[in-house]
Design a protein that fits this description.
Elements: E1 7-12, H1 16-27, E2 34-39, H2 42-51, E3 56-60, H3 65-78, E4 83-87, H4 92-104
Parallel strand pairs: 1-2, 1-3, 3-4
Helix pairs in contact: 2-3
Length: about 110
């Protein structure tokens, strides 16, 4: 176990298979202390966000734009400093680079 703080990540996706892969990549990434949970259900995403100490929201490709906007607005209203990242795919290297970049930006 590393002494780095755990970053809790909420992953919201449309495709269950892609969601499973993204969750596995995040939870098994040895260079960081990520704890990722995810769902394809918007209601469950809202519950996970409300119930957890989420530090980053990752929205994968395929989410309806209206739903995407609604989730972003709700999450930012509940927690104005939350970081929300759109991930379109492109492999694990790109995913981890996108997370690192999102975490380095000011709130």
């Amino acid at each position: 176990m590393t002494d780095k703080a755990i970053l809790n990540i909420l992953v919201i996706g449309k495709d269950p298979e892609i969601l499973t892969v993204v969750l596995r990549l995040l939870n098994d990434y040895p260079q960081a202390n990520y704890h990722a949970v995810g769902t394809t259900d918007p209601a469950q995403a809202r519950e996970l966000f409300a119930d957890g100490d989420i530090g980053l929201v990752l929205i994968t490709n395929g989410i309806d734009p209206t739903l995407d906007a609604s989730l972003r607005e709700e999450f930012l209203t509940r927690r104005p400093g939350i970081r929300i990242l759109q991930h379109y795919g492109g492999g694990s290297g790109l995913l981890f680079a996108e997370i690192a970049q999102a975490l380095s930006l000011p709130h």
